[in-house]
Write the structure tokens for this entry.
Amino acid sequence: MKITKRQLRRIIKEEKARLLSEVAMTNTDIISDVQRWMEEIRELHTAAGIGNLETPDMGGPDDNQTEMLESALGDVMEIFEELEYTLQTKSLRR
């Protein structure tokens, strides 16, 4: 079976569109996951910041550990915010 240049171009165009739509769906799913994780991290960060964690005698962190946890969670939130922005920006370019 022989394929003309026009048919080949159409096949390539259709396949490219299909692949791009799959990638777009994947980015949307990833952005949704990142936003959900950010909310959970935000809640932990807030709890650490207001001292709403278990006390050391209950197995929770001491003041120094709480401070380190709050700082680390703040850093993680910044990374996730940058990731979310990057994913959204790349999704808009398509």
Remarks:
- Residues 27-93 form one domain.
